[in-house]
Automatic annotation (TrEMBL):
Classification via NCBIfam families: oadG_fam
Protein name: OadG family protein
Subcellular compartments: Cell membrane
Matching Pfam families: DUF3887, OAD_gamma
InterPro entries, per database record: DUF3887, Na_pump_deCOase
Alphabetized UniProt keyword annotations: Cell membrane, Membrane, Transmembrane, Transmembrane helix
TM regions (residue ranges): 151-174
Main location: membrane
Length: 251
């Protein structure tokens, strides 16, 4: 019974796998590799500047089983792979892996600087969705890259922590600044009050000086009042002299 169950399970999985024509998939994959190898920067830029409708139309007219996004992303991935691995040299046989909704085609490729793995993914309609170029690094290169990433990450963390510590250390100046800002208004009011008092004092001093210095004017006024009243000048004293707001004399 267990053997029968396993057999039925295997039949069920194989029946759900995506059906494809190996020769046509190989032909379209080979064409894409050759096109990416021969396309220059101007041609790639022309494809990237084209809108989705025209791009889909061009691919449909040529009979190529590529989606618009899959084709442009394949061109970009190839250019990135060239920068990482060097110029393309050759590739080996294709390996096919299927599931119920996609087909994955892989092959080992040789580039000038390092080897790489080319991976092509076709969707359920057997149209190319993506292509990637994965460079193969030695253990030393992997460790060096990992160490560099670790140092860079830790350095960034320490820089951020130092910056946060500096900001926190400045918090102790906030109460003093707040107190100074509060006392600023009080200080201005006190200064204004002091200025008013000083001006009043100067005004009073000026009036006193005017009375003291104008002795002749005081004597003349005192004599005039004494003559008007018919008395002597000993009965009163002129303490201050002020100008009236109006020049008219009141009776």
């Amino acid at each position: 019974m267990l053997v029968a169950v396993l057999c039925f399970t295997g039949c069920s999985n194989s029946g759900n796998e995506l059906k494809y024509d190996k020769s046509s998939i190989k032909e379209s994959t080979e064409f894409l590799i050759n096109y990416c190898q021969s396309a220059d920067d101007a041609t790639i830029q022309q494809w990237e500047d084209m809108d989705d409708f025209n791009l889909e139309y061009q691919l449909m007219q040529s009979g190529l089983p590529y989606t618009a996004d899959g084709f442009t992303s394949a061109l970009e991935s190839w250019q990135s792979g060239i920068k990482e691995c060097g110029a393309y040299v050759s590739h080996g046989d294709f390996k096919y892996e299927t599931s119920k909704d996609e087909l994955k085609v892989t092959t080992a490729a040789k580039f000038k600087d390092r080897d790489a793995t080319l991976t092509f993914v076709y969707n359920q309609k057997l149209k190319l969705e993506s292509m990637t170029v994965d460079g193969k690094y030695s253990m030393g290169e992997v460790l060096e890259k990992a160490g560099l990433n670790t140092v860079l990450g830790m350095g960034t963390v320490f820089v951020v922590l130092i910056f946060i510590s500096l900001i926190i250390s400045l918090f102790r100046f906030i109460p003093a600044l707040e107190e100074a800002w509060k006392n600023r208004g009080k200080k201005s009011a006190k200064e204004a009050e002091a200025v008013v008092v000083e001006e009043a004092t100067q005004s009073a001093s000026a009036e006193a000086e005017d009375v003291t210095d104008d002795t002749e004017l005081v004597a003349v006024i005192a004599a005039a009042i004494a003559e008007y009243e018919g008395t002597g000048t000993d009965g009163f004293v002129v303490r201050s002299i002020r100008r009236r707001p109006s020049n008219k004399w009141n009776a």
